[in-house]
Write a structure and sequence with these properties.
Length: 81
């Protein structure tokens, strides 16, 4: 979980969310909820990036759109053989 530029937007948005929660609960609980949301979102994004990277593999075939493995498309290259 590296800190990226767009994390500033996430932090600012969660800060405003915390300010909105404060009238309804104690600031301690609002801060705890926002911190849990921050790490939950970061964990979700990291897992999603990993899943997309695994799904794409070495790239995507321009002809059919399937994943390329061993520098060959399993659909297009098998048709030529």
């Amino acid at each position: 979980m590296n800190f990226e530029k767009r994390d500033i937007i996430l932090i600012v948005g969660l800060f405003f969310f915390m300010l909105g929660l404060i009238p309804f609960m104690a600031p301690f609980y609002a801060a705890f909820i926002v911190i849990a949301m921050y790490f939950g979102i970061k964990f979700y994004v990291a897992n999603r990036k990993k899943a997309i990277k695994k799904d794409v593999g070495e790239g995507i075939c321009a002809e059919c759109g399937s994943s390329i493995f061993d520098k060959k498309c399993p659909n297009c290259d098998s048709v030529g053989e």
